[in-house]
Design goal:
263 residues; alpha/beta; Spore Coat Polysaccharide Biosynthesis Protein SpsA, Chain A; 10-stranded mixed β-sheet; two-stranded antiparallel sheet; 8 helices
């Protein structure tokens, strides 16, 4: 099963980092978040990746072919030009991408999320596939997610999560401040956490480059009863802002990053 990763957005709310690189290349612990996402999927046996490029896609192309982070005995890289390379760099960091495939597909500079997904259709074919954004990390159980999807038989499964707490609560006793407490998880309900499992029929709901996947396609699938929610109660964190990046970096540096299941 292929894993599609959207990596073409501008990341304007993280402009301090994304002026020179696409958001999936912003580093956590010295590695791009794209590396962390792919590594996580690989731990569940999903090693065939299709990456939708756009804004500063050349940075991802260069990283895939030149950096020792993609060390392994055999890594097959397919470019949007049709060029294929089989890389055999030396082992350098205790893990390999042996047997992985990485397809880098140009999907346009201003293409919306739905359009990027549709442009990956040729690479994915008429097969079931996984889909996620290139700017979020989680410890979602991908085996359980896939089993849930297969069991219900609908076209699309979306992982839904509780947004992480951003603000603490002030505890009041009348007009007196009695103390402070962390905002409870789940106070804002469920949100789209990405980490999708898709049937190829999902492509039929996307009209073109201007389509935002989170709007018309998901709304239509929901109306038709073809969109199911996999509830994830564990860790999830997107990287939209400088603060989000700092949270992920601090978790990695603590040695307790919930998504790090390979060490």
């Amino acid at each position: 099963m292929k894993v599609a990763i959207l990596a073409g957005g501008h990341g304007t709310r993280l402009a301090e980092e994304t002026a020179l690189k696409p958001k999936p290349m912003v580093e956590i612990g010295g590695r791009p978040i794209l590396w962390h996402i792919m590594r996580y999927y690989a731990c569940f046996g999903h090693r065939n990746f299709v990456v939708a490029l756009g804004y500063k896609g050349d940075v991802i192309r260069r990283y895939a072919t030149e950096q020792a982070s993609f060390a392994g005995r055999h890594l097959r890289i397919t470019f949007d030009t049709g060029e294929v390379r089989s890389e055999t760099p030396p082992e350098t960091d205790g893990w390999s991408m042996d047997g992985w495939t990485l397809e880098l597909r140009e999907t346009g500079l201003t293409t919306n999320t739905g359009g990027r997904i549709r442009r990956l259709q040729q690479a994915i074919g008429r097969n079931r596939f996984m889909l996620t954004w290139g700017d979020g990390l989680s410890n979602v159980d991908l085996h359980a997610l896939l089993a849930f999807h297969v069991a219900h038989g609908r076209l699309l499964t979306m992982t839904v999560v509780h947004p992480p707490s951003r603000f603490g609560h002030v505890v009041l006793d009348g007009d007196r401040i009695a103390g402070f407490e962390e905002k409870p998880e789940g106070a804002e309900g469920w949100i789209n956490g990405a980490f999708f499992v898709c049937e190829p029929g999902v492509f039929d709901y996307i009209e073109g480059d201007a389509t935002q996947f989170e709007r018309e396609p998901l709304e239509a699938l929901a109306r038709e009863g073809q969109l199911m929610a996999y509830r994830h109660h564990g860790f999830w964190q997107c990287m939209d802002t400088v603060r989000d990046h700092a949270v992920l970096e601090a978790l990695w540096q603590s040695g307790k990053a919930p998504w790090n299941i390979w060490n």
